[in-house]
Design goal:
The chain is an alpha/beta fold and 389 residues long. 42% of the residues lie in helices and 12% in strands. Helix 12 packs antiparallel against helix 14 and helix 14 (352-364) packs antiparallel against helix 15. The longest helix has 17 residues, at 132-148.
Length: 389
Amino acid sequence: MPTLNLPNPDRTISSYTLTGDPIPFVKFKATDFPRIAYSAAHVVADPLAGNDPWLTPAIDWETTLKFRHRMWDLGLGVAEAMDTAQRGMGLTWTEAQELIRRSQAEAKTRDDSLIAYGAGTDHLAPGPDVSIDDIIKAYDEQVGFVEAQGGRVILMASRALAAAAKSPDDYARVYGHVLSQVKQPVIMHWLGEMFDPALEGYWGDADHDKAMDVCLDVIAANADKVDGIKISLLSAEKEIAMRRRLPASVKMYTGDDFNYAELIAGDDQGYSHALLGIFDAIAPAASAGLAALGRGDTKEFFDILEPTVPLSRHIFAAPTRFYKTGVVFLAYLNGLQDHFTMVGGQQSTRSLQHLAELFRLADRARVLADPELATARMKAVLAVHGVSA
């Protein structure tokens, strides 16, 4: 196995030899899995564009769309134009519309393409003059666009609503209106403040348990328009508590990138489906694990997925909103894109120390598809930072 020099937390450099036996890429169909599993997918930047990276996104559409086909080949769904695609952190609604159009066109070329699209209010800047009616209009615009493309909606949380709402009643009013208008049941998305600080106090209360009561009331009042809800609070206990209180027809989609294995496996009172950013980074492992669960082999499911959890917790470590950097870094290491460049220059949000530990954990999790290639690419990154590998 290859060897390279990696920095340590004490600023020393030491030799590291890879040990992981890569999990192979094996094609599956979604019907092989006992859970619905969406991977929130990243976008691939165009490093050769003559743009100003902090101001104007440039996307490599061909590689971005090829990555979606890879998810479908593995039996995973695609959660498109979500926060993993840097929505609100470099990707604006303008680029999101193009991404949605292109992804929907690709999805139509296959009969096994599970896909849903984020619709929110990110084209409406929060501010003191933004009214609840403005927010409803913004939601209507984005939901209408997704549905006009023939797509299914993931109803994203709204920064503008978090800033403008005066009480839980404002949330009930907005969501009640939007849900009454949708053509087919949506997946709601409660994104915690650890992922986006602007969403603190969502549902009208900073206490997650009280906020959960409000959210559950909204779902109960509109259950026929809600396929499920994804919550991203990084708390298995809160997700399980909410899961047990959902109407029977409404699914829980885990967004917990810290505890997904146990939540997907479930307990004697239920389980969670998945809508996860980490599945972008560990797709072959996620696919193999779900297939094992489909065969009734819970031990193999955990044997495959549990080693990925330390990697995921590292990638999603605080500041959690910078997790996209680790996702894209793994795509680069695995040869799924030719560069480590991100929309908005977001590759700069994590340190070399963080990336070095990510490399070690990815090796132990068996998600470096080609150890020789991953090592060569890690050495290139080290060299840029002045470390001789």
